[in-house]
Amino acid sequence: MGLPYDYGLAEKVLCLANIEKSYQVAQLHELPVQIRIMEEIMDNCDSQGLSTGKPLPGRMTLPSISLVLVACICGWFMMQLEILGVRILVPYFGSSVTVVTGSVIGVFLLCLSIGYLLGGWVSSRVNTGLWLGGAMIVVGVWKFLIPMITEPVCDPISMSDIDEKWGSLLASFILFGVPTVLFGTVSPVVVYRLTARTGNAGFSTGLVLAASTLASFSGCVVTAFYLVLYSLRNTLKTSGVILMVLGAVVLTITIQQVRKQKNKLCLIVLFTAFLTSSAFAESQDYGSLVYAKNSLYTGIFVYKNNSVMTLKFGRQGSSSAQSQVDLADPRVHMAEYTEMAFCGLAYNSDPNNVLVIGLGGGVIPREMRHYLPSAEIDIVEIDQAVLPVAKQFFMFQPDEHMKVHISDGRVFVKKQKRREPVTKYDYIVLDAFTSDYIPFHLMTKEFLTELKELLADDGVIVANVWYPNQLFDAEFRTFLDVFGRCQVFCGNGNAMIVAVGAKQEILTVEQIVKKTPELQKKLNLSFDFFGIVKKLAPNAMPHPQAMILTDDRAPVNMLRNSVNR
């Protein structure tokens, strides 16, 4: 005969002390039915990991703390995966906030909700330790495999006819769906078991949510500030191994508990492993502000000082200017780098097809349109809010020979490669700057390899970079690794890395000087081209220990703030 009432696990714990006393009374008075009921209840509790010798409800014990710690560990690694997930997809689908970041966040939210529901359903049906340990091992294996399956998953999707927003969403589901669902089951399972141990559902729920959220915050900060400086591939593999080890520890302890073999080293082992995993993270007067807007990517600010307009990205009051133009004399280059971007004319003075990645105020493409009226100019700008600003304040006007494409630069390059016939560019300018620097995925070996396919044999690539710092050396070395033959024009804070096509020649200072008078006259340049020639550093080479930037590892922030020389 079964129990007359199906006791819930929490109820069993709440009345456990009274049951023990009632059991003793029943034995004293020889009441067989009551004795059998009490024995069934206590055996049921023991079979689910609770013994009648446990402390009174409401007290936190070593196993209870271990459960909370497991929830914290899973919260930490879940947030790590979410932050790294954006970086994983950017090389394939671009850096759009509304596309890649939105897809990753959306997938995580949806899959977590599924995980919460699943966790609530299984919490009373499976052994807690076996589920948590198994989930950690599966997620660990999955994270270890992500670097190997990313390209086979993302490349066909990004190269297909699927719109990039739906493509990134699909790739997010495939890469991150399973581990996120499993992560989502952890909190409900832990809350259920902790409630059974403490007898206080409100306290247990609040404790697990607070602790796991704090751990997620830690995982977010450590990953975003520090782990991104290291190899993406190695970080995912290392965290996968750590999760597998921790899952194995949880399974081992659970099996020992089922066999009545208590192991009081649980907290020490988990806490030590968690600490180990955590160890791996000049002002100018621009005049008055005449325009301000927050776009999807950055803050856009336009200043006016008499006839000089200045464009700045980021936050109001930041010192660096993206573009400047004197409305009284638009042929005058207010910024040194916009003149230096024309250094490629020394290699190819008559380009037919020009590609400019990064619009800003549109000074470079606008001046190219003036000096090269027969050229077809494609401009790629990711932020659609920038184009109206360039047109309204900086005298930029696109036309049938100068077209603006609103797209991520890398996505545009990928799509151009698929066109039949493929457009080959004689002159490519890389000038895609955010408020801080060039987006990392437009500096890597993989991107430059794709860009190389669009470069004509007699073409030239000019990349605007900052120097001197370790990032400049890394960029220079990456260009050399992809193109083999490169030169550098060094200005005051900016440098132009020049790479040439297969049939183009590297020039000496003497050769460029010899070309300068004819070039100056032919194009009727309003600026002194000889001043650009003097900036050529023919013997410049990257630092011997400079790294090659890859999609897997491109610690831009760290290198940008470190000086070699």
What do you see in this structure?
This protein starts with 8 loop residues before the first helix and ends in a 5-residue tail after the last helix. The protein has an eight-stranded mixed β-sheet, with helices on both faces. The longest helix has 35 residues, at 164-198. Helix 4 runs antiparallel to helix 5 (97-122), helix 4 packs antiparallel against helix 7 (164-198) and helix 4 (62-93) crosses helix 8 (201-225). The protein is built from 19 helices and twelve strands. It is 54% helix and 13% strand. With 565 residues, it is an alpha/beta fold.
DSSP helical segment count: 19
Q: Report the sheet with the most strands, covering strand number, pairing sense and barrel closure.
A: 8 strands, mixed
Overall 3D shape: elongated
- What is the number of beta strands? 12
Strand order of the largest sheet: 7-6-5-8-9-11-10-12
Over the alpha carbons, how many angstroms does the gyration radius reach?
31 Å
* Poorly predicted parts: 1-31, 45-58, 261-283
Quick check: average pLDDT? 83
Going by helix content, strand content and strand pairing, the class is alpha/beta
Tell me the span between the first and last alpha carbons. 85 Å
Beta-strand percentage range = 5-15%
Helix content: 40-55%
